[in-house]
Amino acid sequence: MSTDRVSVTRTIPAPAEKIFAVLADPSRHAEIDGSGTVTTARGGSRTLRQGDSFGMDMRWGVRYATRNEVVALDPDRTIAWRTLAPFPLRLLFTGRTWRYDLVPVEDGTRVTETWDVSTEAPLGRPAVRRLAGYTRRSMEKTLERLETVVADGR
Fold first, then answer.
1. What's the pTM value of the predicted model, to 2 decimals?
2. Considering only CA atoms, which of 89, 52, 44 is closest in space to residue 73?
3. What does pLDDT average to over the chain?
């Protein structure tokens, strides 16, 4: 298993449009975050577009904030953003990419979430790679929560 990229897949019994709407609205990310680290989005509810930036308030032991840049977007099919840390953390820990690919299937939509640290700052990449197992478990919870949110019609 490559620890630079970790992917999990789940078939969610909902149309891709409904799933994408949740993923493309940063204010919904705390609802679906399986790691429990996302607390709130900065800037309120909106639909992201290619090149947009959005902020997140986080908590993993301590409170911190991230800035995220949308690096790929194909409506109802793909959305990806790169998470960037503020200075001086950006010298070591910044740049991982989160990606969601949605493929319509007979039973709904096959959703694949990918965590890619090949775009992480080189100095911090070896330390971040050690989080691969934790991240995989959190991503499985995220897709489970995403299914619950879209099933509830929220």
1. 0.91
2. 52
3. 90
